[in-house]
Amino acid sequence: MGKNQVVDLRSDTVTKPTPDMRxxxxxxxxxxxxxxxxxxxNRLEEMAAEKLGMQAAILxxxxxxxxxxxxxxxxxxxxxxxxxxxxxxxxxxxxxMAALSGLLAHPVCTDDGLMTAGQVRGAIRPDIYYxxxxxxxxxxxxxxxxxxxxxxxxxxxxxxxxxxxxxxxxHLDGARIFNAAQSLDITVKDAVSGFDSVMFCLSKGLGxxxxxxxxxxxxxxxxxxxxxxxxxxxxxxxGIIAAAGIVALEVMVERIKNDxxxxxxxxxxxxxxxxxxxxVKPETNIIMLSIKPSWFGEQVKKNPPENGDLAGxxxxxxxxAGVLSLAIDHEQVRMVTHYDLPxxxxxxxxxxxxx
Length: 355
Ligand SMILES: Cc1ncc(COP(=O)(O)O)c(C=O)c1O
Prior knowledge:
Layout: E1 7-8, H1 19-27, H2 39-52, E2 56-60, H3 63-74, E3 80-84, H4 88-91, H5 96-101, E4 104-108, H6 117-123, E5 134-140, H7 153-166, E6 170-173, H8 177-184, H9 188-192, E7 197-201, E8 212-216, H10 218-230, H11 239-252, H12 256-271, E9 276-277, E10 286-291, H13 294-299, H14 310-320, E11 323-324, E12 326-327, E13 332-336, H15 345-352
Parallel strand pairs: 1-11, 3-4, 3-5, 5-6, 6-7
Antiparallel strand pairs: 2-8, 7-8, 9-10, 10-13, 12-13
The structure holds pyridoxal-5'-phosphate.
C-alpha cells in the first residue's frame, strides 16, 4: 500500500471489505430474511452461534442495536443496568436504554475499566420495595475507552457468579471479543461462557462492512427477532452483508494478533517521545496516549493551545501529516490498529509526532 495512503487510526470501524468479502457479496445467495428465507444470513447465524457455544444467534445491523435489543429483553422499564462508568452501552449509544427501554444505568467507577466482583455485588440493589431493581449486569470486553483492556477470565467468572447468586442476568458487550480471546489465548467460546447474551461486531477488526451478532438461548433469540423488527432492524436480502460476515469469521479472526503486535509497536514508539505518555500498556488493538504541554515545545516548537485542548491540537498536527487519530478529551488520544493500514503506517504515525 502506497506512501500517500492516509494512516487512519481513528478506529477499526474504518476498515473496508477485503477483496474476498466483496467477491462473496457478489456471489451471495439471498432471500427475504424477515421471512427467515435468506440462506446466507441463516448460515452466518448458525456459524456465529456455534463459534460462541450459544444455542442461537441473530444478525443485527449494528452493535448498538444488538446491545439495546438485549437490554430491552432482559429488563423491565424502571429497572437498573450495572455498567462500568466508561462503558459503550451507557456513554455512546444515545441514551437508548432510557429512550427505548426506560432503563437507568448504574455506573461503577474503576481505574482500569475492569469492575471487580465485589463492586458488582455492592451495586446490586437489595430487594426492598422502595428501591429500583437491578435487572442486568453488562460487561464490556475488550473495554474500548479503557484502552482495549481485557477482562481476565477469572474476574469474568467471579462477576458471573455474583450475578447468578443474585438472580440477575448478564450481558456481554463483546464488540471486540475476538480481540479479547486472542489476548487471553483462549477460545471465544470460553470467553463468553456463562453469559445470558453476547453481542459482537463483524464490522470492526474483523473487517466486514456492516453487521453485528447477538447470541443467546433459543427463546431469547426468538424474542430478539421481534425486538429487532420493532427497532426497525428487520432486513430483507441481508445475505449480501452476511456473506462478508462469513468471510470475517472464516478468515479474519486468525490475523488480529497482527493488530495487537502493531499496537504494541505503536505504543513503544510513542513512549520514547518526550511529552507523550502511554499510561496503559496495550493488550489488544487500542492504545491511549496522554499528551502533555511539554510535547508542543519539545517536539513541534509550538505553544500549547490557549484553550487547553492538548489532545485536539495533537490530533490536528498529525492530521496534517496524513495520520488520523481520535481525541477523547483534552488530554487523551485514542489510536486503533487494524488490517487496513498502509505498510509503513505505524512508522509514519510515530514520525508525525516528532516533526
Ligand atoms: C465496545 C463497543 N460496543 C458497541 C459498539 C457499537 O457498535 P456500532 O457502532 O456497530 O453500533 C461499539 C462501537 O464502536 C463499541 O466500541
